[in-house]
Amino acid sequence: MKKEAEMPDVVGKELPHLWNAMHRYHPGAQQMVAASGEGSWFTDESGNRYLDGVSGLWCLNLGHGRQEIIDAATAQMKKLTYFPLTMSHNPAVKLANKISSLLGGGYQTFFSNSGSEANETAFKIVRQYHKQTGNPDKFKIISRYRAYHGSTLGALSATAQANRRVKYDPGVPGFLHVYPPYHYRSIFGGEPEESDLKAAQLIEEMINWEGEETVAALIMEPFISGGGVIIPSMQYIQRVAEICKKYNVLLIMDEVVSGYGRTGKMFGFMHAEGVQPDIITMAKGLTSGYLPLGATAVKSNIYDVFKEEGKDNHFRHVSTYGGHPAACAVALKNIEIIENENIVERVNELGKSKLSQLHQLMEHENVGEVRQIGFLLGLEMVTDQKSKVPLEDSKMAEIVSKCKKKGLIIGRNGDTVPGQNNVIIIASPLSSTEEDLDFLVETVESVICSV
Ligand code: PLP
């Protein structure tokens, strides 16, 4: 590893004033302080170089340092530094048009700053929509166990991962959780498609037991990501969409991770033919992490309910920085690059030719299942394939730490669901070079074989 920078006095110490996200206090533990980045790699303040196998927090899709994106932000800041979206500005107008066309047309977009906010916005929209369309009792929002939808209280209430929530409960009233399409450990057994369809059936049962007149919406990631990369059969997604339609339950598709090419389609739901969600939420890959931006795209027929003349029916929701001009300009440039450089096709091809080599790890007794779609990959680790007992925490930590020592950052669904935090997560930048991916695959293989 190359030494690049002088060691500042924070390295190796508890940081004096910074409270890092998810930070656990370990006296004397070495903290990573990043200094610079280039492509899919970054260098820490001690000069160690790492391949970022999780794209930051699943967001740095085009990697560090794309000059065109930086120029787009600078030019926009010079031209119009800030403007609120209580009125509008050109980059937001253009971006909303672009998002609608990427979704097939007919969507109106509300901008915010993050994935959590995009989901909060969606929850408020669905509740108000039903109130204004003669269904004032429809307020409940269903999500699936293992899903992550954000950290603010509403989004956390939709997040059905017990360990993330327990310190902050009770959550917001009206959020319900249902069994996920997790065929590897499904109580239903049988083929994946069959067990997933039974999981979908539980959603219909829940709507009936709760009373359809009380259920407003269902939120789902097409592929549960942070909760352990759970990839259902496409028939499951189609069936859930049908059930939602049948009961006038709005379908919110959380594309915060899966949007903008990560899974080999522009949006994850597009893998399931015929599915057209009522609301689609986005963040992360929308700007490739260059600036914060969240978006809630809503079908026009829903939006129409918020603009009837002479009624007090407007959406009473505002965010000072939501849809910041520079962030919208960055998103437009990011999407232009994704299109011009055929990033979605690239993800498909390299997902198949490179990342999929990790499926060979199924020969290893500790690998229970390899789940992959495009550049989203999970390795479910077990003590042995037959018992499927989750690999113990210390071994999981050892794998992550050994990869780091070899210069590769990987993720895991650590400490989210009781007893099942045994999935290694790989979500490298979509612009990773073939050499980057070779290094990633070789490192993961060698570390898993050594543990
Ligand atoms: N939805 C999903 C699927 C996510 O993975 C995340 C974050 O990881 C969020 C929402 C929340 O996004 P943010 O951290 O930008 O608030």
TrEMBL record:
It comes from the Bacteria. The keyword Transferase applies. One of its GO terms (molecular function) is transaminase activity. Gene3D superfamilies: Aspartate Aminotransferase, domain 1, Type I PLP-dependent aspartate aminotransferase-like (Major domain). Keywords: Aminotransferase, Pyridoxal phosphate, Transferase. Belongs to the class-III pyridoxal-phosphate-dependent aminotransferase family. NCBIfam families: PRK07678.1. This is Aminotransferase YhxA. The lineage of its organism: Bacteria, Bacillati, Bacillota, Bacilli, Bacillales. The gene is yhxA.
